[in-house]
Amino acid sequence: MSLRLFDTAARSxxxxxPLVPGHxxxxxCGPTVYNRVHIGxxxxxxxxxxxxxxxxxxxxxxxxxxxxxxxxDKTIRGAVAEGLPLREFTxxxxxxxxxxxxxxxxxxxxxxPRATDHVPEMVEIVKKLTERGHTYESDGTIWxxxxxxxSYGKLSRVDLSSxxxxxxxxxxxxxxxxxxxxxxxxxxxxxxxDSALWETDLGKGRPGWHLECSAMSMKYLGETLDxxxxxxxxIFPHHENEIAQSEGATGKPFVRxxxxxxHLIVDGEKMAKSKGNFFTLPDVLARxxxxxxxxYLLLSVPYRQKLNFTFDALHGAASAVERLExxxxxxxxxxxxxxxxxxxxxxxxxxxxxxxxxxxxxxxxNSAAALGALFGFVKxxxxxxxxxxxxxxxxxxxxxxxxxxxxxxxxxPEGADASLEAEVEAKIAARQDARKRRDFAASDAIxxxxxxxxxxxxxxxxxxxxxxxx
Length: 470
Ligand code: AMP
Ligand code: ZN
Hints:
The chain is of the alpha/beta class. It folds into 3 domains: 4-261, HUPs (Rossmann fold, 3-Layer(aba) Sandwich); 284-409, Isoleucyl-tRNA Synthetase, Domain 1, CATH 1.10.730; 416-468, no CATH class. The chain has helices at 39-57, 73-82, 86-103, 119-131, 209-221, 235-250, 281-286, 291-300, 311-335, 344-362, 367-386, 392-409, 418-436, 440-452; strands at residues 4-7, 12-15, 23-28, 61-66, 135-138, 141-144, 169-170, 175-176, 182-187, 198-200, 203-207, 225-231, 255-261, 264-266, 269-270, 307-308, 455-460, 463-468. The strands form 6 sheets. The protein has a 5-stranded antiparallel beta sheet with strand order 5-6-9-11-10. Helix 5 crosses helix 6 (235-250), helix 9 runs antiparallel to helix 12 (392-409) and helix 13 (418-436) packs antiparallel against helix 14 (440-452). The protein binds adenosine monophosphate and zinc ion (ZN). Adenosine monophosphate binds at residues 29, 31-32, 40-41, 43-44, 230-231, 233-234, 263-264, 270-272.
């Protein structure tokens, strides 16, 4: 395997080899479930889905774990505002999150652990940290003492000297010894609802956000993970703190490869709830774009580049998906026809395209390179088809390649199956009959019925073709 990935900690491309040959353990930071995710969040989640699909296409098996942050300041605030117990409040947002993933054809992770179901595991980590001298308590809150972990900062290379050290500081909510220290356990405060508090050996309180991910990743993937991902805003302090807690507790390396995706931006700024510059998936769907076009746009820009979201770009993505879909349909027709024998040169060209798509993905999941190679092939296949030069056997092989490539992309319609095709072909034949009888009312009715289902007919010199609306 020649898969190379850009490791944030090393700041360079590394040859990726999983700890257990043939198997990847992957932890992907999930959403804070206090509202509907926006398409910026979804860019990161679609990228992680593509990553899993690439690994599988390379013959690796993958265990993906994605946590659900269902306890933190925002979820508590939301639950209180709506007068709901925390769990009932977060249940709703988890449901819409799963809906969005399904709409975008994301293959579900192996586990979606909820933080509130793992408080005992978190308490255990805090106990270990305390035994090893990494914590101190102040007014019911337990802090991680950064000064006790000399390699703190190794992931983010954050300039610690710019953060004032040693002075005892009171931030607005808690007292800590050093500004850089962070809470692993937050003591209960006035006004916090019981549904968000746990009675534990550490006292009454709730876990810090960073601790949640340390506990859930190590529980499901072991103390050393192959890959841990998130968007770039997670690098500091979230992932830096996860390292300090996990390695502080186990004494073992926590993560072998860190991958971080750049943001989706609008007008030069990160898309964020707090900025009000966001679209949710339903917002974009309501403007008439298909989920497959949205998925395509989100995955088409390589993950280490910012993705500038515009409706023009989405329009372009819809055309690209349509192009793939229409070629798929035409290859299907051609594959079923009688004709010349397969050509060796076409088979060689196909093998070349397949290798180029694979090489693109292996090069740090470079979607632009993979798509460039794929669309180069699409263009040639279209030209051969139009010239009537593509042998049915070659068309079948080309179609198989297209679908194989789509195993990673996930943008062709799932229903591109034989039964739908047979039904559409039968309707097209009925429409041709009606036209021969000059019964234009009947032929138009068939065309309209198909259009209402998103299936468009095109009259061409070679006969009637159909494709799905992108
Ligand atoms: P949150 O719910 O805020 O914890 O975010 C969930 C995930 O989405 C995290 O991995 C964030 O880093 C990521 N994220 C947030 N905003 C964006 C954005 N504009 N573009 C890409 N990813 C984002
Ligand atoms: Zn996390």
